[in-house]
Amino acid sequence: MNDDPLVLFMPSGKRGHFPRGTPLLDAARKLGVYVESVCGGRATCGRCQIEVQEGHFAKHKISSSPDHISPPGAKETRYAEKRTLPPGRRLSCSATIEGDLVVDVPQDAVINAQVVRKDADTRVIERHPAVHLCYVEVEEPDMHKPLGDLDRLKAALQRDWSFGPIEVDAHLLPQVQPTLREGKWAVTAALFQDGDNDIARLAALWPGLKNEAYGLACDIGSTTIAMHLVSLLSGRVVASAGASNPQIRFGEDLMSRVSYVMMNPDGREAMTRAVRQEISKLVQKVAEDGGIARSDILDAVFVANPIMHHLFLGIDPTELGGAPFALAVSEAVLLKAEDLDLKLNPGTRTYLLPCIAGHVGADAAAVTLSEGPHRQDEMMLIVDVGTNAEIVLGNRNRVVAASSPTGPAFEGAEISSGQRAAPGAIERVRIDRETLAPRFRVIGSELWSDEAGFLDSLGQTGVTGICGSGIIEVIAEMYLSGIISEDGVVNGALADKSSRIVAEGRTFSYALCETEPRITITQNDVRGIQLAKAALYAGIKLLMEKQGVETVDMIRFAGAFGSFIDPQYAMVLGLIPDCDLSRVSAVGNAAGTGARMALLSRDHRREIEQTVRRIEKIETALEPRFQEHFVNAMALPNKVEPFPKLAELVQLPPRTMAGIPGEESNPSRPRRRSREERAARRRRV
Amino acid sequence: MNDDPLVLFMPSGKRGHFPRGTPLLDAARKLGVYVESVCGGRATCGRCQIEVQEGHFAKHKISSSPDHISPPGAKETRYAEKRTLPPGRRLSCSATIEGDLVVDVPQDAVINAQVVRKDADTRVIERHPAVHLCYVEVEEPDMHKPLGDLDRLKAALQRDWSFGPIEVDAHLLPQVQPTLREGKWAVTAALFQDGDNDIARLAALWPGLKNEAYGLACDIGSTTIAMHLVSLLSGRVVASAGASNPQIRFGEDLMSRVSYVMMNPDGREAMTRAVRQEISKLVQKVAEDGGIARSDILDAVFVANPIMHHLFLGIDPTELGGAPFALAVSEAVLLKAEDLDLKLNPGTRTYLLPCIAGHVGADAAAVTLSEGPHRQDEMMLIVDVGTNAEIVLGNRNRVVAASSPTGPAFEGAEISSGQRAAPGAIERVRIDRETLAPRFRVIGSELWSDEAGFLDSLGQTGVTGICGSGIIEVIAEMYLSGIISEDGVVNGALADKSSRIVAEGRTFSYALCETEPRITITQNDVRGIQLAKAALYAGIKLLMEKQGVETVDMIRFAGAFGSFIDPQYAMVLGLIPDCDLSRVSAVGNAAGTGARMALLSRDHRREIEQTVRRIEKIETALEPRFQEHFVNAMALPNKVEPFPKLAELVQLPPRTMAGIPGEESNPSRPRRRSREERAARRRRV
Question: Segment Disordered: which positions (chains A, B) (predicted)?
Fold first, then answer.
């Protein structure tokens, strides 16, 4: 029986007994609860705020009360008066334990009434950043102990902050003496600690107390670059910005960029320069929006697909263009920002998450970190649809991953009226089961096409085309209303029943929008989507076989595409396996969230590094069963999968077991083989 | 009793029992005997050569024979044929232990008949360099195990060379894939391992087998920069070069350079640039002389006094110009060469030895490492005479160090006819005890001035002045022949006896050379040497007091000055304490030797770092007894020290115990105080 007071820290749930008089900050440190502190217990930085919860917590057998903590001392009172401490908040460096306590560590400590922008993604990320601000008071020089100024600074950091050996960045050597003198022997040091060893690196130095430091979390997509500026001390997103990837001018998709490198002697250099310059502009923008100096940015995390990752690092991506798709580097990469031509603080490091495989990059690793299949028991499927779809499936026992060459059909490319998701694009479609007449919604308007004022609501844009989510819905609705068979053939016999079914050569189309510009869904469009979704589903099915499961417990759609498609329609098309619809969700820019997690906690860096080492990568092209799964998945929703949960919600057309006559319309062997060859060609460039 | 054969490695003396069939290289590794190997036991690099000693070694109870080693196998025979193995040499990676052996590890393995220049300093330095060349064969990429090329390279290095975690230099990321392919998956990696942690850093990479790597050892003096190019694999000096320190144009001595920085806004930058550029030229020169590429230079060690050290690092040395003489950094500094604007291999590191105190720099640390007072039991005094004299005194129990402001008199400055040691300078002097006539020798001639052909032997130069060693000798001879008293007064009464004694105002001079240019030793010259030697001796005496010793066992003179002065005359003057003359020696450029030791062995780096942390630094200006020792040391050889060993060799004039009359000639309090003030002013600038 321990007579010392019991202290429970929330939300971590860590607990322990401590003698009366122990500062709460010390108790937190001993338990491994991360509480920020810059001033090292001098009650001047205000970073170590906590709240005492009042009441009897029967579950924990703790009666917690504000009386069980020491009253504010002179220093804390001075801080509260000068800097304002929110009601209920205490400084854990000054408040001591005087009885049993339940202590809440707020994740949003607002310091100096700083205004922080509210981010759409309000996920709270546990913090344990690689960069620490450490305020120290350094001994003055003494002729009797002729230790250098830097050496006394290191000694002070080791004494007050329990660091082991400290390495020093070269650029600081000339700054140590003037900074110490400017700060009258009191300075704040930024210590960087990460990677395979416990060596701390002195990365930046300011006179006096420096109470804020920032980091970047950046997702370099083939199309878009997205960047968040994040406070390393509070974890809050301070500013966000996005821009098109300027490499688009060298090639629309990944493989055309690899081709550009192979064809042009300085192609790699030009693309590396382009992406770094654009990132530099985004840094400028978020720094301006956040009202901070670039030199206050002390850490940066980047995620990207393998080709973007290599080009950003200045690595020739040619090897990724053909089998065996060899990555130059797969493990996490830690560099100085200046090695990537980024002008931040000279001591700033950058961290790139590991790549999983030649087609499954650091972005997929970031999505995995964000969604955490490896952190839970249920079988989670993560699908990130782009030109290549990245697929991750697993739970805490085992995680497998693959990439499927879906092609750009889901993004509206290679579709006759397809376009990117932008104002004017049809995004929602319903078809009357009897009349076969459609109604639809268009990006930029809240109205359906059969509602009054629809055309006016579109403004000058009008209807311009159909985007990925619209294609998914229209083809699913065409299937549900009998316009296409389960094998994807547009039923020409219906031309008699509806003017929407129109003959085009030897096949038939469905006219979705009869006014100009006419938007029709052709037999080729249907075929394009069938091929894309069959590739995706075949990949998923391979992973399910590897895991030995018939069903998945939950599905996460990552990326912009996933945010707009209706999971039910995705399931009708057989894009994804049968699943309880309430367990299917879109998770938005999960890659960006994963990047923020790695930025804010080096524990998350170790977590994803270890997870990626464990992930089993399936190369779909090498799997003998891929072909069979692909053929089955050409059917809607699938030739062999029962989709029982979907059937409870949706009236699916009855299945025909026989093949469908007609040469073009039959996804026959030669046709399929040619499809795979095209996919393989795309990879090889 | 161990039945396994006993193997003794020389010169290390390490020994152990090993099962028959053990490769000798493995045995050496297990015992911690450093044997170089690049190819990792493939018998292709030839770096692991050893020799078996034949005979019965009674002391070790070993009968060693070439029969106790396996005969050359196919690989070794192929190497011997293709690359020539000197007679008696074997490759220790291939030769296995078959009986008791005494094995010699040669320190000079000459590979591929490479011609190495013989260096004056033939000291053999134990090798354990910070940079290792490691040949590996890397697995080819495999779609089923999508590890990056770099990651497979790291795995191969860890597997074959037992490395732990490996960090990778940023510049190598784009090179890994093409280098692996160029080398057909066989590459040689340079791994750098040093400092506080065991992390290895991949610093350079070549296709195939790379069998040579070089390092620089450089001593940056105020006047001269000296550089050696050293093979990191054989330890041999391949080329050497020297140049004037171009900072001389900003100020002749150290304090005038500090003044220049204080007076000129870009003074620090200009001097940093000047010294780095000169070093870069020297690199070019030694690389050309050695017939190697700059990119083959993979490590570099620099030593310098504190002000040169700071300026080289780009640190403002102003703080070193005044009390408390605060070093910006005192511990050893490890940087990338490119941080110092040195164009070597992009992965090359530089190491600067630690500084001992504000006036006792990394050069003094290098001298200490070279001479090793801390490695032995006897009390060793090391004196490095320059504008400041650095003094180190100690043994394995305790080492103390100080700097004495001797001023430039010993270098010929502030002496009426003084000059640097150069052709034309008088360097040796003898005075006839009866006639008071001198004879002397001049740099550039082997003849004494009273020998036939002397003038002709001087050529056009003639006699131009007197250098430091000449001044020491002439003043010692003046004392021994009674021209000056023990208090340094030129005896004017002798003017009657010899025309060499000449009145100049109220004092007298000694005419050493009566032809033009007339070279005379004035009373002021004598006084200047007295002041300098008194400062030096007082510093030595303080250190002896700290150590609690009355005598020292051995004396080492470091630096160019020490190489030219005759220890006996130095003792007559009382520059150094009484000591058995056979134990007094000049050690030449010991700072350069120390730099080479640190270059060739990281064990030596740790050794000097630990030693410098232990060295007690005495600030002479703060010691109350300095004054008293200084006054006593103004006398020749000393007012209170007996110098018994010297007296056995030299007929010293009888001592007078009374003070000497005459105001100017008496080193009285005001005079002495003014001297110390000047010394203090010099330090404060």
Answer: 654-685
Query: What pLDDT band is residue A357 in, cutting at 50, 70 and 90?
Result: very high
Contact check, Cβ <8 Å, A329/B196: no
pLDDT of the residue at A219: 96
Segment (H or E) for A626: helix A626-634
The residue in chain A having the minimum alpha-carbon distance to the alpha carbon of residue B173 is A315
Same domain, B669 and B534: yes
Residue listed under structure tokens 């021209």 = B483
**Mind listing the pLDDT tens digit for each residue in A186-197?**
999 999 999 766
Element (H, E) at B466: strand B465-466
What pLDDT band is residue A167 in, cutting at 50, 70 and 90? very high
**pTM of this prediction exceeds 0.90:** no
A578 part of a folded domain: yes
Write out pLDDT tens, residues B118-161.
Answer: 344 567 788 899 999 999 999 999 988 889 999 999 999 999 99
Does residue B115 form part of some domain? no
Asked if residue A424 belongs to a domain, the reply is no
User: CA-to-CA distance for A436 and A474, rounded, in angstroms?
Assistant: 11
- Of residues B168, B174, B339, nearest to A170 (C-beta): B339
| From B168, B328, B336, residue closest to A173, measured CB to CB | B328
| pLDDT, greater one: B579 or B388 | B579
Nearest-CA distance B306 → chain A (Å): 11
Q: Does residue A679 sit in the same domain as residue A624?
A: yes
Residues A458 and A559 grouped into a single domain: no
Which of A327, A331, A355 to probe by mutation at the B interface, max B CB count within 10 Å?
A327
- And the tokens for A263? 């064809």
Confidence of residue A660 (pLDDT cuts 50, 70, 90): very low
Q: Which range marks the domain in which residue B653 is found?
A: 368-407+530-684
Taking the C-alpha atoms of residue B633 and residue B536, their distance in angstroms, rounded to an integer, is: 9
Distances (CA, A) of A437 to A431, A481, A524, B378: 6, 10, 21, 107
Q: How confident is the model at residue B108 (pLDDT cuts 50, 70, 90)?
A: low
**Residue A679's pLDDT is what?**
47
Same domain for B347 and B385, yes or no, is no
Q: How far is CA B524 from the centre of its chain?
A: 34
Rounded distance between C-alpha atoms, residue A634 and residue A612, angstroms: 31
Choose the final residue of a domain: A527, A554, A586: A527
Q: Any bridge partners for residue A8, and if so which?
A: A15, A102
Quote the pLDDT of residue B660.
Answer: 41
Long-range contacts for B484-487 (Cβ within 8 Å, ≥24 apart)?
Answer: B484/B526, B484/B636, B485/B636, B485/B656, B485/B660, B486/B635, B486/B636, B486/B639, B486/B653, B486/B655, B486/B656, B487/B634, B487/B635, B487/B636, B487/B660, B487/B665, B487/B666, B487/B667
- Is there a single domain that holds both residue A512 and residue A461? yes
Do you find a cis peptide bond into B644, omega within 30 degrees of 0?
Answer: no
What amino acid occupies position A482? G
Q: What is the ipTM of this complex?
A: 0.87
Question: How close A177 comes to chain B (CA, Å)?
Answer: 6
pLDDT on residue A223: 86
Per-residue pLDDT, B47 = 87
pLDDT for B34 beyond 50: yes
Among residues A527, A548, A574, the one where a domain terminates is A527
Tell whether B196 and B240 lie within a shared domain.
Answer: no
Q: Are A383 and A536 in contact (CB under 8 A)?
A: yes
